[in-house]
Amino acid sequence: MALYLARRLLQSVLILLGVTLITFFLLYVLPADPVRQIAGRSATAQTVESIRQQLGLDQPFWVQYARYLRGLLHLDLGRSYLQRSEVSELIWARLPPTLLLMAAAIACEVVIGLVMGIWAALRRGTATDTALMLVSFAGVSAPQFVVGLLMLYVFGVWLRWLPIGGYGTAAHLVLPALTLGLLGAGWYSRMMRSSMVEVLRQDFVRTARAKGLTRARVVLRHALPNAILPIVAMIGIDIGIFMGGIVVVESVFGWPGIGQLAWQAIQRVDIPIIMGVTIVSAVGIILGNLLADIVAPLIDPRIKLR
Amino acid sequence: MTLAEPHQPGAAPAPGASPAVLSVEGLTISVATEAGLRPLVQDVTFTLSRGETLAIAGESGSGKSITSLAVMGLLPPNVRPTAGRVLLGGTDLLALPESRMRAIRGDRVAMIFQEPMTSLNPVMTVGAQLIEAIRAHEPVSLREARARAIEALDAVRLSEPARRMGQHPHELSGGMRQRVMIAMALALKPDLLIADEPTTALDVTVQREVLDLLRDLRRETGTALILITHDMGVVAEMADRVLVMKDGHMVEQGPVAQVFEAPREPYTRALLSAVPRMGSRPPEPAPPPAAPVLVLRDLVVGFDAGAGLLGRPTHRVHAVEGVSLTIGERETFALVGESGCGKSTIAKAIAGLVAFSGEIEVAGRVLRSQADVTREVRRQAQLVFQDPAAALDPRMRVGDLVAEPLVIHGIGTREERRAKVEALFERVGLTRAQIDRYPHEFSGGQRQRICIARALALNPKLIVADESVSALDVSVQARVLALLKELKDQFGMSYLFISHDMAVVDSIADRVGVMYLGQIVETGTREQVFGNPRHPYTRRLIEAVPVPDPDHVRPPRPREAREIPSPVRLRGDPPARVALRDLGDGHLVAAG
Fold this sequence. Notes:
The complex is a heterodimer.
Chain A: H1 2-29, H2 34-39, H3 45-55, H4 61-73, H5 87-122, H6 127-141, H7 144-158, H8 170-200, H9 203-210, H10 215-227, H11 229-253, H12 258-267, H13 271-299
Helix pairs in contact in A: 1-13, 5-6, 5-8, 5-13, 6-8, 7-8, 7-11, 8-10, 8-11, 9-10, 11-12, 11-13, 12-13
Chain B: E1 20-33, E2 36-49, E3 53-58, H1 64-72, E4 79-88, E5 91-92, H2 98-104, E6 109-112, H3 126-135, H4 142-155, H5 161-165, H6 174-186, E7 192-196, H7 204-221, E8 224-229, H8 232-238, E9 241-246, E10 249-255, H9 256-261, H10 266-274, E11 292-305, E12 315-328, E13 332-336, H11 343-350, E14 357-362, E15 365-367, H12 375-380, E16 381-384, H13 388-391, H14 398-408, H15 414-427, H16 444-456, E17 462-466, H17 474-491, E18 494-499, H18 502-508, E19 511-516, E20 519-525, H19 526-531, H20 536-544, E21 568-570, E22 580-582, E23 588-590
Parallel strand pairs in B: 3-8, 3-9, 6-7, 7-8, 13-18, 13-19, 16-17, 17-18
Antiparallel strand pairs in B: 1-2, 1-4, 4-5, 9-10, 11-12, 11-14, 12-21, 14-15, 19-20, 20-23, 22-23
């Protein structure tokens, strides 16, 4: 286990290095000029140039990158160009709402996806199955900003059941979490259905029935743990997919998380914040996958961590 | 579909006999298809008394498994009983609602299945699965259920039962898993145990142990047993009565001795005569020494396993460890042994599918490494595998499949190839008209004929037949074996015949090599090895084979649950090589 973790840690460092290099390079070649954003439209060429020197943006790419890495080694993500504060502080402040939203969204997609998937598998070939899979298909295909705005209109404006945006109470959480989770729920229900259908055909399910167990116990105790493995692996990957959705959903619902922070930073070419958010997301994805890999052998003892 | 008339039990129990535990009357089972109900089993009637064993025998598709699933109430969703009754002590199981049937399942009627590898839940411990079975029917505490589970594991002679409770199925061998299945089935002392091909997936010595165990347990508990099997040897050894089924119908039913000695129905007679029997083939004069077609010299195949620091392998699987043998022209050499003994790995090495060291000589060409196995070598040595359904691409026409080796080797024009394929089809007992069909349109036996035709296409010197008849029903098996013999006489090739089935090997081989843990422990002519087995392992193998003769008396042998040691060893710790001693006339036996 220690050996495994050490190997994974080494891999993670390499991945992070690659992520920083690629993101840094993309931002370097971007035609938008951050200095223009800082100086404002009326600034003289001289002012612009002095800001550029001050930020070190006149240096060659490798020098800039090396300097950024040096800071990163000391856990220093740099200072925002425009917000006049440390990037790490900005992210730290915005992280809890995002983590809360993610956790709620994962709970949504897992619960909705599993229930729909298991239900469809047990009713395979019936109208229920077809209807459930149609719904899941809609969930998979609808863009998140459409789902978000639709739900906002129906539940927030029309029915007035839930607040249309903001942060603070559990009621505020419902719509953004659902919006973010529905896409995954669609995927999970389809995966869960096919995985469950496969497992229900297995010999050990017949054995379980031959023992005289109840249907519920056969499905939940015997079939489910065997069918859920592909889903567990997916949850790890999902955190990455969520990062894209979170930028959209936080903007639509005015959720004060790092997605919103990233969105503002992209608009204003605030490179340190974009870099910081990217690195934090990458760490999140790496941790998510690691967690999924560690959980898998707990569910299926045949899986060995190597 | 008309309902069957109320049915009289076929054989009324003799006066004084114990009352029937189970009586099945006029059972008809149908599958719902788009064209309406189609019967799978028709009008099956039998009774079973306490402590009695009834074998339901038949070939694939005979309906024997469906019949047993109907008794359990475990039929697939689109299959249902359409007539008849299944009476368990007076209760008609077919009329029971699922909730009451569930209470009977596992408690009064229990079942064990063919595949021990997949019949246990891989993510639950053995103990959890046993305890669950007990607590599903009896309101006992966890502690008490656990104690009874350990007791049940002990009853099936599983070593260290308390430790087994915490193990997962993948940590146990096939024989041990089947013991766990039996323990689970018998933990609640059911009135009736249904065993559906319980030993078919097991090695012959493990089969012996499981059959012995079942017989002992039946005697100890008085449980009635329905044994579903295709193996007439198992029928003869285990059953009191036998019911022969074919295509969903009962063909014949009666006491085992009577059915075996004086079968009334032609089908039963044909089935019994198709069963290969050890020692039924008369001794034949040894063929004159011929030029060698295949020579193995100190063949070694190993695989790395395990991963330590930096992913370096820690163990090595010694699959084949120094095997030497010679197969002459027109000779059939059989390799026998149990799973994991390395016999199939030898086939793979000859086909160039695994890396090897040592020497392989095919038709005079010496190969010293996998890279030496060129296309020309493969042309001389062709393979026929166990599962013909998996060996034929389902999307290719069978004619193209047979012609493919010719295309790969660039032989002949399109018309010449077509003519050759037609000739091959007729030679293996198929017709020209079938050439443009697809594999799924053929039966298992026909598919194996197609595989044989494909192997013959290049006129090889050697055909490696790896368990080529093992998946076939006995009557089909007998015909394919006859075909293989004819082809050998006609085309003059040699066979390396790999099989776990002693009786089949006895019926086809000229010479035999017995493999154990990657090495040959005894080899010689068929008469030498089977008529005068000298190595203890050879004797164990031969003694373990079920004999299709109810009068056969098996000498008592200590009941043992021995596991074959693993060929996986730490790196740098190779197994000891056995030294073969010549007992005269080429009968070689491992010393010690």
